[in-house]
Amino acid sequence: xxxxxxxxxxxxxxxxxxxxxxxxxxxxxxxxxxxxxxxxxxxxxxxxxxxxxxxxxxxxxxxxxxxxxxxxxxxxxxxxxxxxxxxxxxxxxxxxxxxxxxxxxxxxxxxxxxxxxxxxxxxxxxxxxxxxxxxxxxxxxxxxxxxxxxxxxxxxxxxxxxxxxxxxxxxxxxxxxxxxxxxxxxxxxxxxxxxxxxxxxxxxxxxxxxxxxxxxxxxxxxxxxxxxxxxxxxxxxxxxxxxxxxxxxxxxxxxxxxxxxxxxxxxxxxxxxxxxxxxxxxxxxxxxxxxxxxxxxxxxxxxxxxxxxxxxxxxxxxxxxxxxxxxxxxxxxxxxxxxxxxxxxxxxxxxxxxxxxxxxxxxxxxxxxxxxxxxxxxxxxxxxxxxxxxxxxxxxxxxxxxxxxxxxxxxxxxxxxxxxxxxxxxxxxxxxxxxxxxxxxxxxxxxxxxxxxxxxxxxxxxxxxxxxxxxxxxxxxxxxxxxxx
Length: 485
Hints:
By secondary structure, the protein is mainly α. Helix content is 85%, strand content 0%. It folds into two domains: 39-228, no CATH class; 237-485, no CATH class.
């Protein structure tokens, strides 16, 4: 594949994943506001516990054998069938474990309703397994248009179903309706629009080849996903469920602006990095561009959200959600660091270092356990500040191995992105100072957004013009390339 074709496919891939994720998150934002007004923080806290299992289920779409299928240079029909049946069996086994573990979960958190909630929400694991090949084939081809359209339709319908259930007084079960219907509709849409149909074949050779790569990604992703949500499990145990609701809502808002953008780029980086992994200078350059441009976008969005967190929450979610404001601001700090870790991890996976990545994930997640032990007695804000420190240490660990394998380590990366951090801090300070003393929430929101954005763009134009123009050029490629065949 030539460089121009690679760029075109990568740009289109990012474009459609951004369309999907921004479209989905825009719909979820509206749905979330309505549900936040209809439901209580405690109900969101209860579903937050169950959501951990829902997020683990997504691993079977994004990781493991699906990633091995994407990473493989040439794939066959036998490979597709082997991945499909392997994931289906794993999902059934995992759901069985969840079914029998449900009473223990309900007893541990002293909430009887968790028994039925866990068993019903656990069904998403099996549902997700049925779409593994369709998603992997689209990702392998860097073609996300079909999935984007299906996801947008599914999230709209599921959102309406969730709101309807909440309106009829179903309480926490309305959130189950929302999540489960979304996954069922997406999976059904992928099957209806896909030409691939599994046949009764299974290749032991294919299984062994992909197991060597995919098993470590799967194990690593499961561990990572569990530890990404370890704070939900801990807060749910040691703090009131309402406090967990405040945390989960803050995390959801941060993900809306941070992880969704990075995930859009991350989905594309893996196949792109994989295809150029033998050309180290070219890989270095691509990693640098992804890192700079993703971080530039992310730093602006996280700075804006930090500055206007108070009016944003009070206007859209109402006063009852006010305790989540400091949680959201702290999570914004971790959100800035997030894309650096994602890009470095994708490099290791593209190079076939899935076992190393798994081992590193154990080390990094042990730091989270240490953070909980040291900070939980001081409150949720202390736990989240510790998470910011853990994210920073994770950058050092991940970037060390990027430097080892492609000679683009921590110090080279920091040299290329340090100016972004300086501008972010200066723009954030300008935004905070400009809103001091403003009583009107709407005026606070407008001034904070305007001053922070203007300061950010002006400083980048003066001191970092080339990177800003390159990022704007990427925007033009993303949204202005449709005229080209």
